[in-house]
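We read letters as residues; the fold follows as tokens. A sample entry reads:
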Amino acid sequence: MLQGVDMQLGLAIDNPKATLAVKRRLACEMVKYWQQIKDSIPELPLSDGWAKKHTLFVKWKYAEAKAAAYYFHGLILDEGNTEKSQEMAISSLQASEEFLKESKRASKAFHSTPPTSRISTPFGTTKHLLDMIPKETLSKLQNNQDLNTQERPSNTGVSQIITPPPPLPDFPLALNPEEYELPQLDPLLKKEANH
């Protein structure tokens, strides 16, 4: 399910006809799926040395999903015409950038944890986020600084909004797993196993 949503988000990002609302919804769904995984991973019996690696992978991808969700949420809030919506947009984009940094740290930790692995070149949704989040955040902060400078000429420096980001919208998950039971073992296979 999660891979399907990730693929849908990647396709939406590449499609100029896909709206920000669609991208935000998919990103918010990814956050919920990763949250479910994060909550259930302590229940898994991972005593074979892979527990830390699995936990770091989930931390990495969860932070990345939150970065995407706050990024698209910030872009939608930026379309608002009120001062409050502009402040919330900046706050969301700043949160997105912080989650992106957290994701990078978790990725490095994941790849350096035994068994070590090589950090791959970012692609798809991740590449888009790495390219766009810092640009959008800087652009929005500069625009806000320009507005504040016009209103209050004595204000110097980049205006930093130090408000917590607004909560992400809570969309219901579009995909839910179906219960599945493995079929009974074929009697012929049982006979072969006994021989």
Observations:
- Helices lie at 2-14, 20-40, 51-78, 83-112, 124-151, 187-194.
- The chain has a mean pLDDT of 82.
- Residues 83-112 form the longest helix (30 residues).
- The chain has one domain: 2-153.
